[in-house]
Write a structure and sequence with these properties.
By secondary structure, this protein is α/β, with parallel strands linked by helices. The chain has twelve helices and 15 strands. It has two domains: 243 residues, TIM Barrel, CATH 3.20.20.20; 97 residues, Sulfite Reductase Hemoprotein, domain 1, CATH 3.30.413. The strands form three sheets. It has an eight-stranded parallel β-sheet with strand order 8-7-6-5-4-3-10-9. A five-stranded mixed β-sheet has the order 11-12-13-14-15.
Length: 354
Amino acid sequence: MVRISRQIDIGGVKVGGGAPVAVQSMTKTDTRDVNATVAQIKSLEQAGCDIVRLAVPDMEAARALGSIKKQTNIPIVSDIHFDYRLALEAVRQGVDGMRINPGNIGAKYRIKAVVDAVREKGIPIRIGVNSGSLEKDILKKHGSPTPKALAESALRHVSILEDLDYRDIKISVKSTDVRKMIEAYRILADQTEYPLHLGVTEAGTYEMGTVKSSVGIGTLLASGIGDTIRVSLTGDPVDEIRVGLNILRSLGLRQHGIELISCPGCGRLEIDLMKLVKDVENRITGIDLPRPIKVAILGCVVNGPGEASEADIGIAGGRGKGMLYKDGKLVRSFKETEIVDELVKELETFAVSA
């Protein structure tokens, strides 16, 4: 059963309440470098990112948010720790959401000042709890960052906002331990109605981070828990979006875009399949289709034609040539060097006709 949470609005993107699961990322540039940050956000936009979060370490970074927002199109969330003045400046700069834990910003008047500011502008707050930064008393009580400890910390911050009659809240309880992360979110799903932002923190490099995030995020989504996701990977944040979208597509939760499949390869390979798949991935990033399209890339002219025919669009390559299939029928053949161009051409035609 799908968990239906309260719905919030982050810069026009509906989160919770049965809305589609949104994919987020975080810029890895210095926010004070407006040009570099805008360029990275634009690359995330092109990759299909729905919401982007920016670190705000100081006042210079906070004041840069307005300029960055004017030059980009997706909702911007400011990530702030401890200093409530940075939060107030982020509101003045027009951010769409804020990640801040109210219990960490000091006196009640400071918390109230932030809440009053975001309430006036209709800006939601994400409470973000990580296993590496739990409160000392909670750690002492539980002995370690257990799932119950993570949930208790999150609910403590939630209660501070609720006491101020503020409920435009989203919650995350991230851990590097996938099992703990899954259990912590399950606890929150049972105890709150707020939307949940899923993620495995410090998941690692592309290979390991993809596995950990797919298992953790995928397990929860498959059981109906989760309203937004972020795949945390070391490296280019565009990879986070690609993996996140693939998780959603694999579960039938993203109803448009391209699902790319390819054979694992064997001794019959007569083509550089790894290079071909990578070239195709790079070329199709900016193609947006209104419904799911399955694209198969096979490197064998023995089994390839049969396998390719099962996809909406299929490519079978080998022996110096390529064959393109559409809806199970051979459309045309061409030189091996033309495979990527021919596939992209077909996808672009498909996009127009769809």
